Amino acid sequence: MILHSNIIGEGKPFIILHGFLGMGDNWKTLARQFSESNFEIHLVDQRNHGRSFHSNEFDYELMAEDLKTYCETNNLEDIILLGHSMGGKTAMLFATKYPEMVSKLIVADISPRYYPIHHDAILEGLSNLDFSDIKTRGEADEKLSKYVTEAGTRMFLLKNLYWVEKGQLGLRINLDSLKENVSEVGEALPIHAIFEKDTLFLRGDRSEYIAETDEALIHRHFPNSRIITISNAGHWLHAENPKEFYDAVMNFL
Fold this sequence. Notes:
- The protein is of the alpha/beta class.
- It has ten helices and nine strands.
- Strand 6 and strand 7 (168-171) form a beta hairpin.
- Helices cover 34% and strands 20% of the residues.
- Helix 2 (60-73) packs across helix 3.
- The strands form two sheets. The chain has a seven-stranded mixed sheet, with helices on both faces. Strands 6-7 form a two-stranded antiparallel sheet.
Protein backbone atom coordinates (compact mmCIF):
# COMPACT_ATOMS: atom_id res chain seq x y z
CA MET A 1 0.00 0.00 0.00
CA ILE A 2 1.20 3.48 -0.89
CA LEU A 3 1.24 6.38 1.56
CA HIS A 4 -1.07 9.30 0.83
CA SER A 5 0.61 12.59 -0.02
CA ASN A 6 -0.06 16.14 -1.14
CA ILE A 7 2.51 17.30 -3.71
CA ILE A 8 3.22 21.03 -4.05
CA GLY A 9 5.51 22.69 -6.60
CA GLU A 10 8.09 21.39 -9.05
CA GLY A 11 11.83 20.76 -8.80
CA LYS A 12 14.12 18.74 -6.56
CA PRO A 13 12.10 16.24 -4.45
CA PHE A 14 11.72 17.33 -0.82
CA ILE A 15 9.76 15.04 1.51
CA ILE A 16 8.30 16.23 4.83
CA LEU A 17 7.22 13.76 7.54
CA HIS A 18 4.86 14.92 10.31
CA GLY A 19 4.94 13.95 13.97
CA PHE A 20 2.82 11.63 16.12
CA LEU A 21 -0.93 12.30 15.74
CA GLY A 22 -0.21 14.83 12.98
CA MET A 23 -0.55 14.76 9.19
CA GLY A 24 1.15 16.20 6.14
CA ASP A 25 -1.39 19.02 5.87
CA ASN A 26 0.03 20.50 9.10
CA TRP A 27 2.97 21.65 6.94
CA LYS A 28 1.08 23.24 4.03
CA THR A 29 2.08 26.85 4.69
CA LEU A 30 5.80 26.10 4.92
CA ALA A 31 5.53 23.69 1.98
CA ARG A 32 4.23 26.48 -0.26
CA GLN A 33 7.16 28.66 0.81
CA PHE A 34 9.73 25.92 0.14
CA SER A 35 8.14 25.17 -3.25
CA GLU A 36 8.90 28.72 -4.40
CA SER A 37 12.62 27.82 -4.42
CA ASN A 38 12.29 25.06 -7.05
CA PHE A 39 11.45 22.21 -4.72
CA GLU A 40 8.76 19.59 -5.27
CA ILE A 41 7.35 19.18 -1.77
CA HIS A 42 5.79 15.86 -0.79
CA LEU A 43 3.64 16.18 2.34
CA VAL A 44 3.36 12.52 3.29
CA ASP A 45 0.89 11.00 5.76
CA GLN A 46 2.59 8.15 7.63
CA ARG A 47 0.70 4.90 8.25
CA ASN A 48 -2.24 5.19 10.69
CA HIS A 49 -2.23 8.97 10.20
CA GLY A 50 -4.08 11.40 7.94
CA ARG A 51 -5.44 9.78 4.78
CA SER A 52 -2.89 6.97 4.66
CA PHE A 53 -3.76 3.31 5.21
CA HIS A 54 -4.50 1.83 8.63
CA SER A 55 -2.53 -1.11 10.00
CA ASN A 56 -2.31 -3.04 13.26
CA GLU A 57 1.47 -3.01 12.78
CA PHE A 58 3.33 0.18 13.60
CA ASP A 59 7.05 0.77 14.15
CA TYR A 60 9.93 2.71 12.62
CA GLU A 61 11.24 -0.17 10.51
CA LEU A 62 7.83 -0.42 8.84
CA MET A 63 7.54 3.35 8.40
CA ALA A 64 10.99 3.51 6.82
CA GLU A 65 9.95 0.76 4.38
CA ASP A 66 6.69 2.62 3.68
CA LEU A 67 8.76 5.65 2.70
CA LYS A 68 11.07 3.57 0.50
CA THR A 69 8.05 2.15 -1.34
CA TYR A 70 6.64 5.67 -1.73
CA CYS A 71 9.91 6.95 -3.22
CA GLU A 72 10.22 4.01 -5.61
CA THR A 73 6.60 4.33 -6.73
CA ASN A 74 7.06 8.05 -7.44
CA ASN A 75 10.55 7.63 -8.97
CA LEU A 76 12.11 9.89 -6.34
CA GLU A 77 15.89 9.89 -6.04
CA ASP A 78 18.43 12.05 -4.22
CA ILE A 79 15.72 13.49 -1.97
CA ILE A 80 15.83 16.13 0.71
CA LEU A 81 14.18 14.62 3.78
CA LEU A 82 12.72 16.59 6.69
CA GLY A 83 11.02 14.95 9.66
CA HIS A 84 9.51 16.40 12.84
CA SER A 85 9.39 14.44 16.11
CA MET A 86 8.15 10.93 15.21
CA GLY A 87 8.68 11.85 11.56
CA GLY A 88 12.24 12.81 12.49
CA LYS A 89 12.82 9.31 13.87
CA THR A 90 11.45 7.79 10.64
CA ALA A 91 13.66 10.15 8.61
CA MET A 92 16.78 9.29 10.64
CA LEU A 93 16.25 5.56 10.23
CA PHE A 94 15.46 5.87 6.52
CA ALA A 95 18.59 7.95 5.88
CA THR A 96 20.84 5.50 7.72
CA LYS A 97 19.33 2.51 5.88
CA TYR A 98 19.18 4.07 2.41
CA PRO A 99 21.82 6.84 2.33
CA GLU A 100 22.05 6.65 -1.46
CA MET A 101 18.44 7.92 -1.67
CA VAL A 102 18.96 11.00 0.56
CA SER A 103 21.03 14.06 -0.35
CA LYS A 104 20.37 16.07 2.83
CA LEU A 105 18.58 15.29 6.10
CA ILE A 106 16.74 17.74 8.38
CA VAL A 107 15.49 16.61 11.80
CA ALA A 108 13.14 18.86 13.77
CA ASP A 109 13.16 18.65 17.58
CA ILE A 110 13.95 14.99 18.21
CA SER A 111 17.13 13.13 19.15
CA PRO A 112 18.16 9.57 18.22
CA ARG A 113 17.77 8.50 21.85
CA TYR A 114 14.96 6.59 23.56
CA TYR A 115 12.00 8.58 24.93
CA PRO A 116 9.60 7.19 27.56
CA ILE A 117 5.85 7.15 26.83
CA HIS A 118 4.40 10.60 27.49
CA HIS A 119 1.19 10.76 25.43
CA ASP A 120 -1.09 9.07 27.99
CA ALA A 121 -3.42 12.02 28.69
CA ILE A 122 -3.74 12.88 24.98
CA LEU A 123 -4.59 9.30 23.99
CA GLU A 124 -7.06 8.96 26.86
CA GLY A 125 -8.75 12.21 25.83
CA LEU A 126 -9.03 11.17 22.19
CA SER A 127 -10.37 7.76 23.27
CA ASN A 128 -13.13 9.47 25.22
CA LEU A 129 -14.49 11.44 22.28
CA ASP A 130 -17.87 9.78 21.80
CA PHE A 131 -19.04 10.74 18.32
CA SER A 132 -22.49 9.33 18.88
CA ASP A 133 -22.86 12.23 21.31
CA ILE A 134 -20.39 14.85 19.98
CA LYS A 135 -21.77 16.64 16.91
CA THR A 136 -19.52 19.70 16.54
CA ARG A 137 -15.82 20.55 16.71
CA GLY A 138 -16.59 22.86 19.63
CA GLU A 139 -18.11 19.99 21.61
CA ALA A 140 -15.07 17.84 20.83
CA ASP A 141 -12.75 20.62 22.00
CA GLU A 142 -14.70 21.02 25.23
CA LYS A 143 -14.53 17.28 25.96
CA LEU A 144 -10.82 17.08 25.10
CA SER A 145 -10.02 20.08 27.34
CA LYS A 146 -10.65 17.87 30.38
CA TYR A 147 -7.55 15.89 29.39
CA VAL A 148 -5.45 18.39 27.40
CA THR A 149 -5.41 21.87 28.94
CA GLU A 150 -3.17 23.58 26.34
CA ALA A 151 -5.41 25.11 23.65
CA GLY A 152 -2.74 24.98 20.92
CA THR A 153 -2.19 21.26 21.46
CA ARG A 154 -5.95 20.62 21.28
CA MET A 155 -6.18 22.63 18.05
CA PHE A 156 -3.41 20.45 16.58
CA LEU A 157 -5.10 17.22 17.73
CA LEU A 158 -8.55 18.24 16.50
CA LYS A 159 -7.23 18.64 12.95
CA ASN A 160 -7.74 14.86 12.90
CA LEU A 161 -11.52 15.38 13.01
CA TYR A 162 -13.42 14.88 9.76
CA TRP A 163 -16.99 14.34 8.60
CA VAL A 164 -17.45 10.61 8.04
CA GLU A 165 -20.86 11.48 6.61
CA LYS A 166 -23.31 14.33 7.07
CA GLY A 167 -23.76 14.91 10.82
CA GLN A 168 -21.21 12.23 11.82
CA LEU A 169 -17.73 13.21 12.99
CA GLY A 170 -14.80 10.81 13.31
CA LEU A 171 -11.01 10.71 13.66
CA ARG A 172 -8.73 10.06 10.68
CA ILE A 173 -6.02 8.45 12.82
CA ASN A 174 -6.10 4.73 13.61
CA LEU A 175 -6.40 5.40 17.33
CA ASP A 176 -6.61 1.75 18.42
CA SER A 177 -3.34 0.84 16.71
CA LEU A 178 -1.55 3.98 17.91
CA LYS A 179 -2.60 3.29 21.51
CA GLU A 180 -1.53 -0.34 21.23
CA ASN A 181 1.86 0.58 19.75
CA VAL A 182 2.57 3.90 21.45
CA SER A 183 5.76 2.54 23.04
CA GLU A 184 7.24 2.25 19.52
CA VAL A 185 7.16 6.05 19.13
CA GLY A 186 9.92 6.53 21.69
CA GLU A 187 12.26 3.83 20.36
CA ALA A 188 15.91 4.79 19.85
CA LEU A 189 17.75 4.75 16.56
CA PRO A 190 19.67 1.44 16.24
CA ILE A 191 23.10 1.78 17.86
CA HIS A 192 25.12 1.20 14.68
CA ALA A 193 23.00 3.40 12.38
CA ILE A 194 25.11 6.13 10.74
CA PHE A 195 24.40 8.74 8.02
CA GLU A 196 27.49 10.59 6.85
CA LYS A 197 25.95 13.24 4.59
CA ASP A 198 24.95 16.78 5.58
CA THR A 199 22.38 16.78 8.39
CA LEU A 200 20.67 19.63 10.23
CA PHE A 201 19.05 19.25 13.65
CA LEU A 202 16.67 22.03 14.70
CA ARG A 203 15.44 22.41 18.27
CA GLY A 204 13.12 24.85 20.00
CA ASP A 205 14.67 26.94 22.76
CA ARG A 206 11.70 26.12 25.01
CA SER A 207 11.70 22.41 24.14
CA GLU A 208 13.39 19.63 26.12
CA TYR A 209 13.38 17.09 23.28
CA ILE A 210 17.01 17.80 22.29
CA ALA A 211 19.14 18.41 25.37
CA GLU A 212 22.82 19.36 25.50
CA THR A 213 23.49 15.80 26.66
CA ASP A 214 22.09 14.54 23.33
CA GLU A 215 24.66 16.36 21.22
CA ALA A 216 27.41 13.72 21.43
CA LEU A 217 24.91 11.00 20.46
CA ILE A 218 23.67 13.06 17.51
CA HIS A 219 27.20 13.57 16.20
CA ARG A 220 28.01 9.87 16.66
CA HIS A 221 25.10 8.84 14.40
CA PHE A 222 25.38 11.89 12.12
CA PRO A 223 29.05 12.94 11.96
CA ASN A 224 28.36 15.73 9.44
CA SER A 225 25.55 17.32 11.43
CA ARG A 226 24.98 20.70 12.97
CA ILE A 227 22.45 21.70 15.64
CA ILE A 228 20.61 25.02 15.48
CA THR A 229 18.26 26.40 18.13
CA ILE A 230 15.08 28.19 17.01
CA SER A 231 14.13 31.06 19.34
CA ASN A 232 10.71 31.56 20.95
CA ALA A 233 9.67 28.01 20.12
CA GLY A 234 8.77 24.78 21.85
CA HIS A 235 8.33 21.33 20.33
CA TRP A 236 6.15 22.63 17.46
CA LEU A 237 8.96 24.98 16.42
CA HIS A 238 7.89 25.07 12.74
CA ALA A 239 4.48 26.41 13.76
CA GLU A 240 5.63 28.65 16.63
CA ASN A 241 8.43 30.43 14.76
CA PRO A 242 7.94 29.55 11.09
CA LYS A 243 10.09 32.41 9.73
CA GLU A 244 13.20 31.44 11.69
CA PHE A 245 12.55 27.76 10.95
CA TYR A 246 12.21 28.47 7.21
CA ASP A 247 15.35 30.61 7.15
CA ALA A 248 17.40 27.95 8.97
CA VAL A 249 16.28 25.23 6.53
CA MET A 250 16.90 27.37 3.44
CA ASN A 251 20.35 28.45 4.66
CA PHE A 252 21.22 24.78 5.17
CA LEU A 253 19.95 23.81 1.72
